[in-house]
Known about the structure:
Distance between the termini: 30 Å
Strand content: 25-35%
Shape: globular
Structural class: alpha+beta
Number of helices: 2
Amino acid sequence: xxYTIVWSEEAKENYRLIxxxxxxxxxxxxxxxxxxxxxxxxKILEKMPFIGRRLESLSAVRKLPLQPYNMIYYTVAERQxxxxxxxxxxxxxxx
Length: 95
């Protein structure tokens, strides 16, 4: 049985901001690749939610690289993968 993906409000907003940043700074192709990569990673997390590395400071939180400059932070609770936040290293810390 697959896990359900749940987005926090902060993660939704940061996803939107990162996509807009990529669109403005690098164009449609890069922004589109970013959204495709997130979709692909979420499909993996639905089936294998413990694939990400645990944070040393918060063992309940895991991180998974999206692209060279992007990271997804999430936790697993019951049968849910809760997307806590997204980080784009080019823009500074969002997490």
